[in-house]
Amino acid sequence: MQNTPVKLLDVVALLEDKPAEGLVAGQVGTVVEVFAPGVFEVEFLDASGRRLVLVELKRAELLALKHEAAARRSRNQSDTHFSTQRREERRETQRRRTL
Q1: Low pLDDT (below 70) residues in the chain
Q2: Is residue 58 within 8 Å of 13, Cβ to Cβ?
C-alpha cells in the first residue's frame, strides 16, 4: 500500500503516534497541501468536524485509504462475467426450443 501515491484531498491514516500533536496511529485525516514530493500537510478533525490539528507529515507516516476495495472491483468483474454466461445460456436454450 505504501506504493500508492498520495494526492491533494486524499484521505489518509496515521501509521505512528504523534504525541506532540495529540495524534495516535490510526487516526484519519485529509491531505490539504502537498509541500514537496513525499511531504504533506494533513488536517485531522474531531467527531464534530472541528480541526484538531494541522500537521506536516512524510509519506512513510501515512497510509492512503481507498473507498472501494480491490475485492469489490473483482466481484463486479465476476458479476459481468456471470451475466454474460447467463445470457449465452438463455440464447442456447432459445435456440434449442426453435429446433
Answers
A1: 1-2, 69-83, 98-99
A2: no
Secondary element (H or E) of residue 83? helix 70-98
Residue 6 lies in a domain: no
Calpha distance 15→65 (Å, rounded)? 12
Per-residue CA distances from 18 to 3, 23, 83, 97 (Å): 22, 5, 49, 70
Residue 40 CB burial class (10 angstroms; 0-12, 13-18, ≥19): buried
- Tell me, yes or no, whether 17 and 54 share the same domain: yes
If we measure between CA atoms, which residue out of 2, 30, 1, 27 comes closest to residue 14? 27
